[in-house]
Amino acid sequence: MPLRHWLAALLVVLLWGLNFVVIKFGVDAFPPLLLGALRFALVAFPAILFIPRPVIPLKLLLLFGLTLCFGQFAFLFSAIALGMPAGLASLVLQSQAFFSVLIAALLLNEKVRVHSIIAMIVAALGLGIIEMGADIAQPVPLFAFMLTLCAAFSWGCGNIVIKKAGPAVNMFSLLTWGAVFPAFLFLLASWLIEGPQLIMHSVSNLSWMGVGSVMYLAYAASFIGYYLWGRLLAQHPVSLVTPMSLLIPVIGLLSAELVLHETLSTVQWLGSAVVVIGLGINIFGGKLLRFLRVTPPNTHRRINQATDRRR
Predict the structure, then answer these.
(1) pLDDT at 6
(2) Which pLDDT value is given to residue 303?
(3) pLDDT recorded at residue 27
(4) CA triplet 243, 244, 246: central angle to 5 degrees?
(5) Has this prediction a pTM greater than 0.90?
(6) Three-class SS of residue 205?
(7) What is the structure's pLDDT at 272?
(8) 30: three-class secondary structure by DSSP
(9) I need a labelling partner for 294 at 20 to 30 A (CA). Which of 23, 77, 179, 244 fits?
(10) pLDDT single digits (tens) 2-14
(11) CB-hemisphere CA count at 13 Å for 84?
C-alpha cells in the first residue's frame, strides 16, 4: 500500500482503539441497544437528506447495515455492558481479521496463505489463554466473551460486504444510508428488550459524558473511521488490510488501563502478546517466505564466506 494508505490505517487504529473506553462510558449512560440506536440515528440523520444513496443493490445495503452496524455493535455494546473489560474487548474483537480472511476465501475465492493459517492458530491460542487467565483482578464473563466473538464475526461479514460493493462505492453514502436500517433495528430491539421505561429514564437523565460518547461513536468512529477503512478495503486485498486492525488493542489496552484503571493478570498479558505475535506472522510471514524462496541457495554460502573473511 502507498504510505498515505498506511497512515490512514494508523489513524483508524487510533480512533478505534480509543473507541472502547468511549463505549464503556456510553453503556454507563445508556442501555446498550439504546446506545446503538442513538449512534446510528446520528450517523443517518440528517445526512441522508443531502447525501445520495450509494449505487449498490439494496440487498448489499441492507447486509451492510445488518452485519457491520447492527450485528457488530449489538453484540459488542451488550458484551461491555455485561462485564467484558473494554481493553480486552478491543483485543478479542480483532479476531475479525481472521474471520474476514476465512469468509473471503469461501465467498470471494481469495487464497488463504500458509502463514495466515499459522497466524490464525496462534491468535486463537492467545484468545484462549486470555479467557483461561481471567482472575479476580480482571474477570472475563464467558457469555460476554462469546458476545464479543460474535461481534468480531459480524465485523468480518461486514468487511466482505464492503469488498463486494466494490472500489467505486461512495463510502459516505454507504455509511449514511447503511445506518438507517440499523437505527430502526436498534430502536425496536431496545423497546422490546430494554423496555420503554428504561429508555425514557436514560433520555431524561442525559449527561455530558453520555452525549459526548454518542457523538464520538457517531462521527469519529463511524464517519471518519469507517470511511477510511472502507476505502482501504475497496482498494486492497482483505488479507492485507484487516490484519492492521490487530494494532487497535495496543491503544485499547493502554487507554483502558490509564482511563478506566483496568488491569490484566500475567496470564492475560501473555495471551495478549500471543495474539500480537499472530498479527506479526500474518503481516510479515509472507514477506519472509518470499525472501527465502527467491534467495538463491549459494547466496547464504557467499554471505557466510564474506563474514569469515572479515573475521
Answers:
(1) 86
(2) 45
(3) 97
(4) 75
(5) no
(6) coil
(7) 84
(8) coil
(9) 244
(10) 889 888 988 998 9
(11) 30
Nearest of 227, 219, 228 to residue 43 by alpha carbon = 219
Residue 134: the pLDDT is 62
Task: Please give the grid coordinates belonging to residue 35.
Answer: 446506545
Q: What pLDDT score does 311 carry?
A: 53
Contact status, residue 193 vs residue 33, Cβ threshold 8 Å: yes
Cell matching residue 86: 473494554
User: Cell triple for residue 307?
Assistant: 563474514
Average pLDDT, the chain: 86
Q: How far apart are the first and last CA of the chain?
A: 40
Residue 309 has a pLDDT of 56
Running DSSP on this structure, what letter comes out for residue 167? T
Largest CA distance in the chain: 82
CB of 39 closer than 8 Å to CB of 217: yes
Write b or e for each residue in 223-233: b if 16 or more Cβ atoms lie within 10 A of its Cβ, otherwise e: bebbbbbbbbb
Q: Which amino acid is residue 283, in one-letter code? A: I
The amino acid sitting at 94 is Q
Q: Smallest Cα–Cα separation from 229: which of 148, 171, 182?
A: 171
CB 275 within 8 A of CB 152: no
64/222 Cα distance (integer angstroms): 13
Q: How many residues does the chain have?
A: 311
What is the identity of the amino acid at 275? V
Residue 266: the pLDDT is: 82
- Joined together, the cell numbers standing for residue 250 give 495496543
**Cβ proximity of 34 and 202 under 8 Å:** yes
CA dihedral 127→93→12→185, nearest 10 degrees, is 180
| Contact between residue 279 and residue 96 where contact means Cβ atoms under 8 Å apart | no
Give residue 296's pLDDT: 52
Gap between the Cα atoms of 242 and 12, Å rounded: 11
Q: Is 192 exposed, middle or buried (0-12, 13-18, 19+ CB in 10 A)?
A: exposed
